[in-house]
Write a structure and sequence with these properties.
The protein is an all-alpha fold. The protein is 63% helix and 1% strand.
Length: 535
């Protein structure tokens, strides 16, 4: 491919298929094919339109199209080598000890056989050097060979103290549905979602649905639908939530209806009409994000989208406060995990859709402040990783279109792709909210650009501390005030505990008292309250 593979892939895929292709899907296909143009064209012909648009989960591994096979050539070595490669290809972990235990007598192939070129061992981890190998090896294996690989990996994971990984591989080695596996798989899916890996959660919940019946199956439908929503796989989410909504389990049906409403709002770009017709464009834009708040599976996702909604709602009336709120939100973001990849073991990362909402708002504020270069940097990095097209009623596409006009030479392929994939039409509020401010960029937006250039993985030494309202000291104790200050600065409970040399539980107790005394229900509400000017 040429100098900008995702953009080149967008042009190629759009030309070959005449279909809408999401930029983050194009970037993922480039990674999965090592940028092979022939393989990209062939994949575009076999993938569904929903796959290309990013609204359905891509097959993993990708199909072994002829160009992928030609680039890889026949698998080298004997049966032991092929067994090692297959175990490496289907494993959801990168722990080398699990792979070594699973391959047993074939282990020598990892250090002395042809496999050395395909599987790299470093610091107790393994890595497949060419993603195309996964496609070919998986496609070449028959059902019995795949079942044997999953059985070996399940046993090895259990021996190495990884019950979740063992459960997953056990489920895939079971040829018939097993009711006993369903509960554990649903819990595993919920755990993965809490770690920010909603795509893996979607896959596990889907497997749980094939094993469970009754209430268990209903829960699996709901978890699959919610996980698909927060991965940006909106068509998949519709399908799973439709099943959950007709499950006959009242609690599941209630939650499914709420998630389904959020999916519809994203797909159409429309929100429920309200009586306040005089609301500002920013306030109307905020309503495109608000339906997500009540469907978030983690506190981090809920806080992020709530902050985005609050920021958009304040654009016209209090832009400085909107900037300050988004700066703090962006500074605390742990970026969404890249897929495919090993399952995560730690929480904190945002779901892809949550980070997409944050990046769309960040690019909007930078654009409105006249910082077009910084806005383009944030948006272009985000569209290569995240499902940006549907958030904010098509906000990313509108911002990208305005950046094309402001930045001569910027490829228009990204804008075209976002607008083709996104909602049918951009809401007037989106276009109005994307208008530029007449005032020059100020310190708030400069800091927002600086945070974006760091990848937004955390705060920095020059980030403002953010003084709390003086009135808080009247109702809060000294320790509660300190906890509130650190939380509004974007710290997690664990980070606050480390900073104050106390336990996480102690922080939770103090924060609960802060919430009660200040009459707020979430961290995002606390931040908004802290930023509110004294009247």
């Amino acid at each position: 491919m040429a100098s900008n593979p995702p953009v080149d892939a967008l042009a190629l895929l759009g030309h070959e298929t005449r279909r809408a292709v999401a930029p983050h899907v194009a970037a993922r296909l480039v990674r999965g094919t090592a940028g092979d143009a022939a393989a990209l064209a062939q994949l575009a012909a076999v993938l569904r339109p929903e796959h290309l648009a990013g609204t359905a989960l891509l097959p993993d591994p990708l199909p072994a199209v002829p160009a992928v096979r030609a680039s890889r050539g026949p698998t080298q070595g004997g049966a032991a080598d092929r067994r090692v490669l297959l175990c490496a290809a289907v494993a959801v972990t990168d722990r080398a000890d699990i792979l070594l235990r699973a391959t047993g007598d074939a282990t020598e192939a990892l250090v002395a056989g042809p496999v050395v070129e395909d599987v790299e061992l470093t610091d107790g981890r393994f890595r497949i050097t060419d993603p195309r190998m996964r496609c070919v090896v998986h496609d070449d294996a028959d059902l019995a060979q795949r079942t044997a690989a999953h059985t070996a990996l399940a046993r090895a994971a259990r021996d190495c103290g990884e019950p979740g990984i063992a459960l997953w591989h056990t489920a895939l080695s079971t040829l018939a549905g097993d009711e006993l596996l369903a509960d554990g798989l649903v819990e595993l899916a919920e755990l993965l979602a809490s770690h920010g890996d909603t795509e893996a959660a979607h896959e596990v919940a889907r497997e749980a649905a094939s094993h469970g019946t009754g209430d268990r199956r209903a829960r699996a439908f709901l978890v699959a639908g919610r996980s698909a929503l927060w991965s940006g796989h909106l068509v998949d989410a519709q399908d799973w939530l439709r099943r959950a909504d007709s499950s006959g389990v009242p609690t599941v049906e209630r939650d499914a209806a709420r998630c389904a409403a959020a999916v519809r709002a994203l797909l159409t770009g429309e929100t429920a009409e309200r009586s306040d017709a005089d609301a500002t464009p920013g306030a109307r834009l905020a309503r495109t994000v608000e339906p997500l708040v009540g469907t978030a599976g983690t506190r981090a996702d809920r806080a992020a989208v709530a902050a985005v909604a609050a920021c958009l709602g304040m654009l016209e009336n209090d832009p400085a406060q909107a900037e300050a709120l988004l700066v703090r939100t962006v500074a605390g973001v742990v970026p969404a995990r890249r897929r495919p990849g090993p399952w995560p073991s730690a929480s904190g990362a945002l779901a892809p859709l949550a980070e997409a909402a944050v990046r769309a708002a960040q690019a909007l504020l930078l654009l409105r402040a006249g910082q077009t270069g910084a806005a383009a940097t944030v948006l272009d990095e985000a569209v290569d990783r995240l499902p940006m097209a549907h958030v904010g009623g098509g906000l990313a596409g509108e911002v990208s279109r305005r950046l094309d006009a402001a930045c001569p030479g910027r490829p228009t392929a990204v804008t075209v792709a976002l607008e083709r994939v996104g909602p049918p039409r951009t809401a007037p509020a989106v276009a109005a909210a994307a208008g530029r401010w007449t005032r020059p960029a100020d310190r708030g937006c400069s800091l927002l650009a600086a945070v974006g250039s760091r990848g937004c993985a955390g705060g920095s030494d020059d980030e403002p501390d953010g003084a709390l309202p003086l009135a808080w000291s009247v109702v809060l104790t000294a320790r509660e005030t300190e906890v509130a200050r650190l939380v509004t600065a974007g710290m997690t409970n664990r980070e606050v505990a480390n900073a104050l040399c106390v336990s996480v539980r102690t922080v939770e107790v103090h924060l609960g008292r802060v919430f009660r005394k200040l009459d707020v229900r979430s961290r995002s509400e606390l931040v908004v309250l802290a930023l509110r000017p004294v009247r």
